[in-house]
Design brief:
CATH topology of the largest domain: Rossmann fold
CATH superfamily of the largest domain: Vaccinia Virus protein VP39
Number of helices: 10
Mean pLDDT: 94
Radius of gyration: 21 Å
Strand content: 25-35%
Largest sheet: 7 strands, mixed
Helix content: 25-40%
Structural class: alpha/beta
Strand order of the largest sheet: 3-2-1-4-5-6-7
Length: about 375
Protein backbone atom coordinates (compact mmCIF):
# COMPACT_ATOMS: atom_id res chain seq x y z
CA UNK A 1 0.00 0.00 0.00
CA UNK A 2 1.07 3.58 -0.71
CA UNK A 3 1.90 5.88 2.18
CA UNK A 4 -0.89 8.46 2.01
CA UNK A 5 1.47 11.18 3.17
CA UNK A 6 3.76 10.41 0.24
CA UNK A 7 1.07 10.78 -2.44
CA UNK A 8 0.32 14.05 -4.23
CA UNK A 9 -3.03 14.59 -5.92
CA UNK A 10 -4.25 17.29 -8.30
CA UNK A 11 -7.75 18.38 -9.24
CA UNK A 12 -6.71 18.46 -12.90
CA UNK A 13 -5.10 15.02 -13.08
CA UNK A 14 -7.89 13.15 -14.89
CA UNK A 15 -8.49 15.85 -17.51
CA UNK A 16 -4.89 16.95 -18.05
CA UNK A 17 -2.78 13.79 -17.88
CA UNK A 18 0.56 15.58 -18.14
CA UNK A 19 1.57 14.44 -14.65
CA UNK A 20 1.07 10.75 -15.25
CA UNK A 21 2.33 9.63 -11.82
CA UNK A 22 0.09 11.76 -9.61
CA UNK A 23 -1.41 9.55 -6.93
CA UNK A 24 1.61 7.21 -6.95
CA UNK A 25 3.86 7.10 -3.87
CA UNK A 26 7.18 8.81 -4.44
CA UNK A 27 9.39 5.79 -3.84
CA UNK A 28 7.36 3.88 -6.41
CA UNK A 29 7.76 6.77 -8.86
CA UNK A 30 11.54 6.54 -8.52
CA UNK A 31 11.46 2.77 -8.99
CA UNK A 32 9.37 3.13 -12.14
CA UNK A 33 11.88 5.56 -13.58
CA UNK A 34 14.73 3.18 -12.81
CA UNK A 35 12.84 0.49 -14.72
CA UNK A 36 12.24 2.75 -17.72
CA UNK A 37 15.97 3.45 -18.00
CA UNK A 38 16.94 -0.21 -17.52
CA UNK A 39 14.44 -1.32 -20.19
CA UNK A 40 15.78 1.23 -22.68
CA UNK A 41 19.34 0.02 -22.14
CA UNK A 42 18.31 -3.64 -22.40
CA UNK A 43 17.24 -3.14 -26.02
CA UNK A 44 20.93 -2.90 -26.97
CA UNK A 45 23.02 -6.02 -26.33
CA UNK A 46 26.17 -3.94 -25.83
CA UNK A 47 24.56 -2.21 -22.84
CA UNK A 48 23.19 -5.25 -21.07
CA UNK A 49 25.71 -5.12 -18.23
CA UNK A 50 25.68 -1.35 -17.70
CA UNK A 51 24.95 -0.52 -14.05
CA UNK A 52 21.88 1.67 -13.45
CA UNK A 53 22.14 3.56 -10.18
CA UNK A 54 19.05 4.34 -8.06
CA UNK A 55 17.16 7.41 -9.25
CA UNK A 56 18.20 10.65 -7.55
CA UNK A 57 15.09 12.10 -5.86
CA UNK A 58 14.07 15.71 -6.27
CA UNK A 59 14.31 17.91 -3.16
CA UNK A 60 10.83 19.17 -4.11
CA UNK A 61 8.08 16.76 -5.14
CA UNK A 62 5.66 19.50 -6.17
CA UNK A 63 5.97 23.24 -6.65
CA UNK A 64 9.32 22.86 -8.42
CA UNK A 65 8.70 23.87 -12.03
CA UNK A 66 10.08 27.31 -12.97
CA UNK A 67 8.36 27.64 -16.34
CA UNK A 68 4.75 27.38 -17.53
CA UNK A 69 4.01 27.17 -21.25
CA UNK A 70 0.26 27.62 -21.18
CA UNK A 71 -2.16 27.42 -24.08
CA UNK A 72 -4.96 29.99 -24.33
CA UNK A 73 -8.52 29.59 -25.59
CA UNK A 74 -10.87 32.56 -25.70
CA UNK A 75 -14.63 32.08 -26.00
CA UNK A 76 -17.92 33.57 -24.82
CA UNK A 77 -17.86 31.12 -21.91
CA UNK A 78 -14.64 32.71 -20.71
CA UNK A 79 -10.94 32.02 -21.20
CA UNK A 80 -9.14 28.76 -20.64
CA UNK A 81 -5.49 28.92 -19.64
CA UNK A 82 -3.76 25.62 -19.20
CA UNK A 83 -2.31 22.63 -21.00
CA UNK A 84 -3.31 20.38 -23.86
CA UNK A 85 -5.00 17.21 -22.72
CA UNK A 86 -2.65 14.30 -23.38
CA UNK A 87 -2.97 13.18 -26.99
CA UNK A 88 -5.33 16.00 -27.99
CA UNK A 89 -5.42 19.74 -28.70
CA UNK A 90 -8.14 20.27 -26.09
CA UNK A 91 -7.05 22.86 -23.52
CA UNK A 92 -7.55 21.91 -19.88
CA UNK A 93 -7.95 24.97 -17.66
CA UNK A 94 -5.43 24.51 -14.83
CA UNK A 95 -5.65 27.14 -12.07
CA UNK A 96 -4.33 24.71 -9.43
CA UNK A 97 -1.38 23.03 -11.21
CA UNK A 98 0.61 21.24 -8.48
CA UNK A 99 4.05 21.21 -10.13
CA UNK A 100 4.47 24.96 -10.69
CA UNK A 101 6.46 27.06 -8.24
CA UNK A 102 3.75 28.67 -6.04
CA UNK A 103 4.69 32.23 -7.02
CA UNK A 104 4.52 31.26 -10.68
CA UNK A 105 1.16 29.55 -10.16
CA UNK A 106 -0.18 32.72 -8.56
CA UNK A 107 0.86 34.70 -11.63
CA UNK A 108 -1.02 32.27 -13.90
CA UNK A 109 -4.13 32.84 -11.79
CA UNK A 110 -3.69 36.59 -12.12
CA UNK A 111 -3.30 36.23 -15.89
CA UNK A 112 -6.52 34.21 -16.00
CA UNK A 113 -8.36 36.95 -14.07
CA UNK A 114 -7.00 39.54 -16.48
CA UNK A 115 -8.20 37.57 -19.51
CA UNK A 116 -11.63 37.22 -17.92
CA UNK A 117 -12.08 40.96 -17.38
CA UNK A 118 -10.31 42.54 -20.35
CA UNK A 119 -12.19 43.23 -23.58
CA UNK A 120 -9.09 44.00 -25.63
CA UNK A 121 -7.52 40.56 -26.03
CA UNK A 122 -6.71 39.72 -29.68
CA UNK A 123 -8.23 36.38 -30.73
CA UNK A 124 -4.85 35.40 -32.16
CA UNK A 125 -3.39 35.01 -28.64
CA UNK A 126 -2.55 31.30 -28.41
CA UNK A 127 0.07 30.84 -25.69
CA UNK A 128 1.45 32.57 -22.62
CA UNK A 129 4.91 31.52 -21.48
CA UNK A 130 5.88 32.65 -17.99
CA UNK A 131 9.13 31.73 -16.24
CA UNK A 132 11.39 32.72 -13.37
CA UNK A 133 15.02 32.24 -12.42
CA UNK A 134 16.53 32.07 -8.95
CA UNK A 135 14.36 34.96 -7.74
CA UNK A 136 10.81 33.63 -7.98
CA UNK A 137 9.40 37.15 -7.71
CA UNK A 138 11.17 38.40 -10.84
CA UNK A 139 9.27 36.70 -13.62
CA UNK A 140 9.20 37.12 -17.39
CA UNK A 141 6.07 36.70 -19.48
CA UNK A 142 5.95 36.10 -23.24
CA UNK A 143 2.75 36.56 -25.24
CA UNK A 144 2.61 34.26 -28.28
CA UNK A 145 0.26 35.17 -31.14
CA UNK A 146 -0.60 32.87 -34.02
CA UNK A 147 -0.08 35.51 -36.68
CA UNK A 148 2.66 37.29 -38.58
CA UNK A 149 1.33 40.78 -37.82
CA UNK A 150 2.01 42.82 -34.67
CA UNK A 151 -0.99 42.82 -32.33
CA UNK A 152 -2.35 45.53 -30.06
CA UNK A 153 -2.45 44.33 -26.46
CA UNK A 154 -3.27 46.04 -23.10
CA UNK A 155 0.21 45.58 -21.63
CA UNK A 156 -0.26 48.16 -18.87
CA UNK A 157 -3.32 46.34 -17.55
CA UNK A 158 -1.47 43.03 -17.54
CA UNK A 159 1.44 44.62 -15.66
CA UNK A 160 -0.87 45.90 -12.94
CA UNK A 161 -2.56 42.52 -12.60
CA UNK A 162 0.71 40.58 -12.26
CA UNK A 163 3.06 42.32 -9.78
CA UNK A 164 5.72 39.55 -9.86
CA UNK A 165 6.20 40.00 -13.62
CA UNK A 166 9.01 42.45 -14.32
CA UNK A 167 9.29 41.92 -18.07
CA UNK A 168 6.93 41.23 -20.97
CA UNK A 169 7.82 40.15 -24.52
CA UNK A 170 5.92 39.11 -27.64
CA UNK A 171 6.47 36.32 -30.17
CA UNK A 172 4.65 35.96 -33.48
CA UNK A 173 4.36 32.26 -34.30
CA UNK A 174 1.80 31.36 -36.98
CA UNK A 175 2.76 27.69 -36.85
CA UNK A 176 0.45 25.01 -35.48
CA UNK A 177 3.04 22.51 -34.26
CA UNK A 178 4.02 21.88 -30.63
CA UNK A 179 6.77 24.51 -30.51
CA UNK A 180 5.41 27.40 -28.45
CA UNK A 181 8.03 30.08 -29.22
CA UNK A 182 9.48 30.21 -32.73
CA UNK A 183 11.51 33.00 -34.24
CA UNK A 184 12.30 36.40 -32.80
CA UNK A 185 11.10 37.49 -29.37
CA UNK A 186 10.48 41.24 -29.09
CA UNK A 187 10.52 43.07 -25.73
CA UNK A 188 7.42 45.11 -24.88
CA UNK A 189 8.21 46.30 -21.38
CA UNK A 190 10.69 45.85 -18.54
CA UNK A 191 13.43 43.27 -18.15
CA UNK A 192 14.22 41.14 -21.19
CA UNK A 193 15.27 37.99 -19.33
CA UNK A 194 15.45 36.12 -16.03
CA UNK A 195 18.61 35.31 -14.08
CA UNK A 196 19.88 32.11 -12.51
CA UNK A 197 22.58 32.15 -9.84
CA UNK A 198 24.60 28.95 -10.12
CA UNK A 199 28.18 27.74 -10.12
CA UNK A 200 29.55 31.14 -9.16
CA UNK A 201 27.85 32.78 -12.16
CA UNK A 202 24.80 34.89 -12.78
CA UNK A 203 23.40 33.26 -15.90
CA UNK A 204 21.21 35.30 -18.23
CA UNK A 205 18.27 33.30 -19.62
CA UNK A 206 16.23 34.88 -22.42
CA UNK A 207 12.59 33.97 -23.15
CA UNK A 208 13.37 31.52 -25.96
CA UNK A 209 16.38 29.89 -24.30
CA UNK A 210 16.20 26.39 -22.83
CA UNK A 211 16.91 25.95 -19.14
CA UNK A 212 16.29 23.14 -16.67
CA UNK A 213 12.86 23.46 -15.05
CA UNK A 214 13.99 22.19 -11.63
CA UNK A 215 16.85 24.35 -10.36
CA UNK A 216 17.18 22.40 -7.12
CA UNK A 217 18.89 19.49 -8.90
CA UNK A 218 21.61 21.45 -10.72
CA UNK A 219 24.06 21.32 -7.79
CA UNK A 220 23.71 17.53 -7.62
CA UNK A 221 24.26 17.11 -11.36
CA UNK A 222 27.33 19.30 -11.43
CA UNK A 223 28.82 17.79 -8.28
CA UNK A 224 28.66 14.38 -9.97
CA UNK A 225 30.22 15.77 -13.14
CA UNK A 226 33.03 17.47 -11.18
CA UNK A 227 33.83 14.29 -9.27
CA UNK A 228 33.90 12.33 -12.53
CA UNK A 229 35.97 14.74 -14.61
CA UNK A 230 38.48 15.77 -11.97
CA UNK A 231 40.76 18.19 -13.81
CA UNK A 232 41.54 18.36 -17.50
CA UNK A 233 42.77 20.44 -20.39
CA UNK A 234 39.89 21.30 -22.76
CA UNK A 235 36.20 20.71 -22.06
CA UNK A 236 33.69 20.81 -24.93
CA UNK A 237 30.16 21.69 -23.83
CA UNK A 238 28.04 20.52 -26.78
CA UNK A 239 24.41 21.64 -27.17
CA UNK A 240 25.48 24.14 -24.52
CA UNK A 241 22.37 26.32 -24.32
CA UNK A 242 23.25 29.34 -22.15
CA UNK A 243 26.39 27.54 -20.96
CA UNK A 244 25.00 26.03 -17.77
CA UNK A 245 27.30 23.01 -17.58
CA UNK A 246 30.52 24.39 -19.06
CA UNK A 247 30.39 27.47 -16.85
CA UNK A 248 29.79 25.39 -13.73
CA UNK A 249 32.80 23.18 -14.58
CA UNK A 250 35.09 25.92 -15.94
CA UNK A 251 37.50 25.95 -12.98
CA UNK A 252 38.36 22.31 -13.64
CA UNK A 253 39.76 22.96 -17.15
CA UNK A 254 42.29 25.19 -18.85
CA UNK A 255 39.79 26.04 -21.58
CA UNK A 256 36.09 25.50 -22.36
CA UNK A 257 34.52 25.35 -25.82
CA UNK A 258 30.77 26.00 -26.05
CA UNK A 259 28.84 24.81 -29.11
CA UNK A 260 25.23 25.95 -29.56
CA UNK A 261 23.03 26.84 -32.53
CA UNK A 262 20.39 28.99 -30.79
CA UNK A 263 21.09 32.70 -31.32
CA UNK A 264 19.32 33.75 -28.14
CA UNK A 265 21.20 31.19 -26.03
CA UNK A 266 24.54 32.28 -27.54
CA UNK A 267 23.70 35.92 -26.78
CA UNK A 268 22.96 34.95 -23.18
CA UNK A 269 26.21 32.98 -22.92
CA UNK A 270 28.30 35.85 -24.32
CA UNK A 271 26.65 38.27 -21.89
CA UNK A 272 27.54 36.04 -18.93
CA UNK A 273 31.15 35.62 -20.09
CA UNK A 274 31.56 39.39 -20.60
CA UNK A 275 30.03 40.22 -17.23
CA UNK A 276 32.43 37.86 -15.44
CA UNK A 277 35.39 38.85 -17.65
CA UNK A 278 36.17 35.21 -18.26
CA UNK A 279 39.11 34.18 -20.41
CA UNK A 280 39.96 30.88 -22.09
CA UNK A 281 36.42 30.47 -23.41
CA UNK A 282 35.66 29.52 -27.01
CA UNK A 283 32.24 29.75 -28.65
CA UNK A 284 31.06 27.92 -31.77
CA UNK A 285 27.80 29.80 -32.54
CA UNK A 286 26.37 27.29 -35.02
CA UNK A 287 24.47 24.02 -34.74
CA UNK A 288 26.78 21.40 -33.28
CA UNK A 289 26.54 19.36 -36.48
CA UNK A 290 27.88 22.32 -38.49
CA UNK A 291 30.77 23.08 -36.16
CA UNK A 292 32.56 19.75 -36.14
CA UNK A 293 35.76 21.15 -37.69
CA UNK A 294 36.03 23.58 -34.76
CA UNK A 295 35.48 20.69 -32.36
CA UNK A 296 38.33 18.71 -33.93
CA UNK A 297 40.61 21.77 -33.86
CA UNK A 298 40.01 22.30 -30.15
CA UNK A 299 40.82 18.60 -29.50
CA UNK A 300 38.97 18.32 -26.17
CA UNK A 301 39.88 15.64 -23.68
CA UNK A 302 36.48 15.91 -21.97
CA UNK A 303 32.95 16.43 -23.31
CA UNK A 304 29.54 17.28 -21.90
CA UNK A 305 26.68 16.26 -24.19
CA UNK A 306 23.21 17.66 -23.44
CA UNK A 307 21.17 17.40 -26.65
CA UNK A 308 17.43 17.72 -27.11
CA UNK A 309 15.09 14.74 -26.88
CA UNK A 310 16.17 13.67 -30.38
CA UNK A 311 19.65 12.89 -29.08
CA UNK A 312 22.95 13.55 -30.84
CA UNK A 313 23.48 12.95 -34.53
CA UNK A 314 25.84 10.15 -35.42
CA UNK A 315 28.14 12.63 -37.17
CA UNK A 316 28.63 14.37 -33.81
CA UNK A 317 29.40 11.10 -32.05
CA UNK A 318 31.86 10.21 -34.83
CA UNK A 319 33.61 13.58 -34.44
CA UNK A 320 33.87 13.12 -30.67
CA UNK A 321 35.51 9.75 -31.25
CA UNK A 322 38.14 11.43 -33.46
CA UNK A 323 39.15 13.77 -30.61
CA UNK A 324 41.41 12.77 -27.69
CA UNK A 325 38.36 12.51 -25.42
CA UNK A 326 38.87 10.24 -22.42
CA UNK A 327 35.85 11.31 -20.33
CA UNK A 328 32.32 12.10 -21.48
CA UNK A 329 29.22 13.07 -19.51
CA UNK A 330 25.93 12.66 -21.40
CA UNK A 331 22.85 14.31 -19.86
CA UNK A 332 19.64 13.25 -21.57
CA UNK A 333 15.89 13.70 -21.15
CA UNK A 334 15.06 10.59 -23.24
CA UNK A 335 16.32 7.13 -22.19
CA UNK A 336 15.58 5.68 -25.64
CA UNK A 337 17.75 8.08 -27.66
CA UNK A 338 20.37 8.07 -24.92
CA UNK A 339 20.63 4.27 -25.17
CA UNK A 340 20.91 4.48 -28.95
CA UNK A 341 23.77 6.96 -28.65
CA UNK A 342 25.52 5.03 -25.88
CA UNK A 343 25.51 1.97 -28.14
CA UNK A 344 27.24 4.02 -30.87
CA UNK A 345 29.77 5.46 -28.42
CA UNK A 346 30.51 1.97 -27.12
CA UNK A 347 31.39 0.91 -30.67
CA UNK A 348 33.78 3.88 -30.76
CA UNK A 349 35.66 2.48 -27.77
CA UNK A 350 33.91 4.22 -24.87
CA UNK A 351 33.05 2.29 -21.72
CA UNK A 352 29.90 3.25 -19.84
CA UNK A 353 30.86 3.60 -16.20
CA UNK A 354 27.41 4.36 -14.84
CA UNK A 355 23.92 5.47 -15.78
CA UNK A 356 22.22 7.69 -13.21
CA UNK A 357 18.47 8.43 -13.45
CA UNK A 358 17.56 11.83 -11.98
CA UNK A 359 14.02 12.87 -11.10
CA UNK A 360 14.02 16.30 -12.69
CA UNK A 361 10.21 16.28 -13.06
CA UNK A 362 8.42 14.54 -10.17
CA UNK A 363 4.83 13.39 -10.71
CA UNK A 364 5.50 12.98 -14.44
CA UNK A 365 6.77 10.02 -16.44
CA UNK A 366 9.79 12.05 -17.59
CA UNK A 367 13.22 11.05 -16.35
CA UNK A 368 16.57 12.79 -16.80
CA UNK A 369 19.61 10.54 -17.11
CA UNK A 370 23.30 11.24 -16.55
CA UNK A 371 25.62 8.70 -18.21
CA UNK A 372 29.35 8.78 -17.50
CA UNK A 373 31.75 7.28 -20.06
CA UNK A 374 35.52 6.76 -20.21
CA UNK A 375 37.95 5.76 -22.91
CA UNK A 376 41.65 4.95 -22.91
CA UNK A 377 43.93 7.77 -24.06
CA UNK A 378 44.06 8.01 -27.84
CA UNK A 379 47.44 7.88 -29.64
Amino acid sequence: MEDATDVINCTHSEDCGACALLGVGYEHQLQRKDQVVAQALAKHPSLGQVPVLPCVPSPLRDGYRNRAKMAVALSRRGPRLGYFQTGTREIVDAPDCRVLIPELLETTRQIRQFLETSRQIPPSLRHIDVRCGTDVNRQHLTLVFRTTERQSFPVDGLRRQCPAVNGISVNLNPGTDAQVIRGAVHPLWGEREVWVEHGGCRLRVSPAAFFQVNLALLPTIHARMESFFGRGDVLADLYAGVGTHGLALRRRFRRVLFAEGSRSAIADLKSTIRARRMSDMGISPVAVERGLDRLREEAPDAVVLNPSRAGARETVLDAISQCPVTKLAYLSCDPATLSRDLDILHRHGFNIQSVQPIDMMPQTAQVEVLALLTRASQP
